[in-house]
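TA notes. Do not distribute before section.
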Amino acid sequence: MIKKGIGRQIVLHYFIVVFVTLFMVEVIFAFALRTYYYQTIENHMSNHATRTTDYFQRFVKLYAERDPDYFTEILRTFELDNTELMVLNRKGEVKASSTQFQADKPIQTSDVPQAVAGGVGKWVGRQATGEWVMAVSTPLQVRGENRYIVRYVTSLEDVNAKLMNMTLLSVGVGSAVLALVTLFSIGLANSIVKPINNIRAVSAQMAKGKFDARIKGNYKYELGELAATLNYMAEEIVRSNQIKDDFISSISHELRTPLTGIKGWSETLTSGGFDPEETKIGMQIISKETERLIGLVEEMLDFSKLQQNEMKLVIGKVNLKELLQETMLNVWAKAEQKQIQLKLDDRAERPVIVVGDGNRLKQVFLNLVDNAVKFSNENSWIHLVITLKDSSTALVQVIDSGIGISEEHLGKVSDRFFQVNHNRGGTGLGLAISKQIVELHKGEMQIHSELGAGTTVSVTLPLLEMVGEAGSGAETAERAETSGLLTGKEQMGQDGMNEDA
């Protein structure tokens, strides 16, 4: 007995389809075979009956007046082997028979009325003796009147026996075919169910947290793709867990550093005995480290809100050139420390206006430029380029001549918690947050880099006139400004993005 499941369903479906097909073929074959044999017998008797009536009519014209017993001679002349030939009158009474058997009552089968009406009658049925027979009757005219009926009767018992044998033989062949198909379907079902059971067992281990388990076996087609997908999923979970562990370690260090500074200076200042200048320096350090802590916490809060689709945007008109100028002012001092040249290149022939949250977009570009400064060598350069990609899209590129990113890490830098170099600090969330903010603005962020040759980050955003229907983009932005929030209000401090991926 096949175990309940997909295997049983496969075998059952194959069995039903083949059984129904074979049953239909068997029925059609049996019907066609019976029709062929019966039709052959009927044609043979019909042709012979027609010839008999032709000769009989000639004999009647020549001898009927002188020989009242002409029926007997004619029956002997035209009888068939294994067939009874009878001459009936219009009432169905037997006038003569080749078997010399005299019926005690008129014959009323359906072939007789058909012959009386002038046609060729046929009847298949069971006689009083229980024997299956076929009868063919034709009319016999005497002086232009249908006065007699020539009736041939033959037994169908031998034919039916042969038909039954052939039907049983075909049923046997069909059963053998059905058995072979069932065995084949069982093998096919096992070839499908066995890998599925293996995949299910390994998946159960993964569900229990054993992510080192892998599906082994060279499976083909969809099963192979499923196995590869599950193995890839396990690898990604292991990698994500490792990245998460690294993140926890890194963020713990990032949080401890400013907290240590704040605690140390607060205890020092509490002890007293410092002149106003030293006290001012200590308070500045405490303020700076506090802002750093706020930035780290806000970055993690932003990421949490993005993951839960709770990021709130204040929608309005945003001039990209003015936004990038403000961004450059924010990082100017940091770039000056490394003698890095910042340059804004506006290649658009008109003001580039987009609809979005100015503070969130500034957060994106602050993170990108801050990353460029952090990963650039001294006496290098960073260019911010504004262009119109097409009539509906603005393109902003942050191009640096820094250390670049290897091909191995390029596809992962936008992943959450990922850090190429843990020694440079940060939470590993900056680029992931930036990418999601750009996508919230219906834009796209792409990173192109070559190790040792610099990095280019491209951000595309839809222009103002493409936000709504034609001619209604400005009205859309104005309505957004007057109504305030599309999803609520929330601001982010500019300094919060100085810690990157």
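Switch to the second chain here.
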Amino acid sequence: MPAESADNSSIPATKKVLIVGNGGREHALAWKLAQSPQVAQVFVAPGNAGTAIDATNVSIEASDKPGIIKFAIENEIAFVVVGPEAPLVDGLVDDLQAAGIRAFGPSAAAAELEGSKVFCKNLLRASNIPTAEYQTFRTASDASRFIKDRYPDSEQDVPVVVKADGLAAGKGVIVCSTRSQALDAINRIAGVREFGEAGDVLIIEERLMGQEASVLAITDGSTIITLPAAQDHKPAYDGDLGPNTGGMGAFCPTPLIDAEMMARIERDILVPVVHAMKRSRRPFRGILYAGLMLTAAGPKVLEFNVRFGDPECQPLLMRMKGDLCEIIEAVIDGRLADVDPPEWDERPSICVVMASEGYPSAYEKGRVIKGLDKAAEMSDVKVFHAGTQNIGTTVINNGGRVLGVTAIGNSISDAKLKAYKAVKEIRWPGAWCRKDISDKAL
């Protein structure tokens, strides 16, 4: 395993921390924060079968603001880490701070950077930050008319991406190549409302060509610490085929982004966004996640998220050395400039997501998962739970993305070998995964 923490042995382990969420990201955060010499106990609300091993689960849903606030006050929680995007967009950090509770994550106003793709695109355009050209529409008929007028020949290529404006669990983005695909995507989002209120407004933007990468940064609104770049695998199937998902795996670092490219991303994208948010009176504190397309003209923004990516968080934290608690508290207190950036294990890591049969569409829950103990015994491997639940001593699948099998190795291929060896130990009826996670790096 990577080095667990810096030497803060002089600081007593007295702090109690609450993490909000129940995914693989939250399990990774709980696992990492539990290693801090300052942290005495980690709670996760509501958590999953994995967080029950590395922390203490609390039966409070992420959407239950009064319950979270009450628990934090009664248990003298030092700070709350809000994992998922929905409670951030819903203003959980604002409500926690109003109750006198320290919280890590952006305000509701700042979280609109992810909560509304239209807000994000307009901010990027106004700040001259490179991104795809786009148009916004409020009705399916207007959007369909735009496609038919711009592409009158039904046989011609239509390289566009159709996006729901609001949150859609990573699935409201439809990549199109033909006119019929674009019209179908418009109907799904704004016609039959497949993604609900997220489709009240939709975006049609040019389809950028290149390779995707994810660059995450920690910021207190003034100082930025950029984390090693990762690559996510959004499409469901091998070869980047099939529908978009919340992410089927990730690896870190990606060879696509060297020091020169990272400096360019910081200069042209990350710093300008933080400044733009400050000018908009929406100062950003927390995790700023840039989803990028590395085009022939340079890096361009596909999207911004306002929290750790899932599954990017898992391989990132496998490599992080030092005390995550120290960094989080520095962000909360607005003193990130006083903290040294974290060191990183030189070895790369990869995360392979094991999913339920049918995901990202309908899937069955309640299937017994076997082999977790064998996988846990493997060297340099950590199985982060996402859609799991304990029923007595049995672990069952309780979601679409079920496990994030994460490994660190001397090379990408070594990490991949270890991860997939662990995957082979784990089974339940209908379990599946992509077989090509990290192959882009090879």
